[in-house]
Design brief:
The chain is 23% helix and 25% strand. The protein contains four helices and twelve strands; from the N terminus they run αβββαβββββββββαα.
């Protein structure tokens, strides 16, 4: 009798595990079904709607390498730049369209001797949208907080541009560089495992999607411009980990 009960219990447990696995797989398919954009390369064109994933890249290199001589700035996807041979590094992200996202770039993964201290956000092939080069590190400081706006027209990316709200929302330990950027002295970057110099990017959207629905996340951030998502997250992290520092 006990063996029958034990066998029945094992069967029920196995059936339960199978159901959990099936539900998890179904959830994955539902999540994927909500994303209608099947373009995953930052060097290809995509037409998106709200809620889609959108792939774009950020290239790290010297400012002079993002153009040919005195010519116009080119997209990092343009082979004429040949950024790979110049030691450029690349980060690729896929945020959800019209959601405010906080992107974090681990500074310790960047070879600062090769990146040149500048970054350019980009996406697309025919339209080849790209942001102006923006400095994120120099010999003395690392700028830790940025806001990037992706502007769409009928679901196609038209422009990427950086916004600065000044230093009112700089996190603890930061200084105000050039009266507009939150920065950390490079001498502090090795403390706390290097986390102090990670680069945070608030990502927002504007314009219209392929259904002509308005993308509002940029205006939401603009209306709350006195706050920094990176600062809020940093302060939250400090408040959680701070009391336990002495335990380790």
């Amino acid at each position: 009798m006990d063996e029958e009960i034990f066998a029945t219990s094992k069967m029920r447990k196995a059936d339960f595990v199978k159901r959990v696995v099936v539900i998890a797989v179904m959830a994955m398919f539902v999540a994927d079904a909500a994303d209608t954009n099947d373009v995953y390369s930052p060097c290809l064109d995509a037409k998106v709607q709200r809620g889609d994933g959108f792939t774009f890249g950020i290239a790290f290199s010297g400012k002079q390498f993002f153009s040919q001589g005195n010519g116009p700035q080119l997209s990092p996807c343009d082979r004429r730049l040949d950024l790979a041979s110049k030691g450029a590094q690349l980060a690729v992200f896929r945020p959800k369209v019209d959601e405010i996202s906080l992107l974090t770039i681990n500074r310790t993964t960047l070879d600062l001797g090769k990146t040149g201290g500048y970054m350019v956000a980009f996406a697309g092939q025919k339209y080849a949208a790209r942001s102006p080069p923006v400095m994120f590190v120099d010999n003395s400081h690392t700028i830790t907080s940025f806001t990037l706006v992706l502007e769409f027209q009928e679901g196609t990316l038209q422009n990427l541009y950086w916004k600065s709200f000044g230093c009112d929302a700089c996190s603890n330990g930061s200084i105000c560089l050039n009266k507009q950027d939150c920065a950390v002295p490079n001498a502090q970057c090795q403390k706390n495992g290097g986390n102090a110099c990670n680069v945070g990017i608030q990502l927002t959207f504007s314009g219209t999607d392929k259904n002509l629905d308005v993308l509002n996340s940029w205006y939401e951030v603009q209306n709350l411009r006195q706050y920094s998502l990176y600062g809020l997250f940093s302060n939250l992290r400090d408040s959680i980990t701070g009391p336990y520092d002495k335990l380790f």
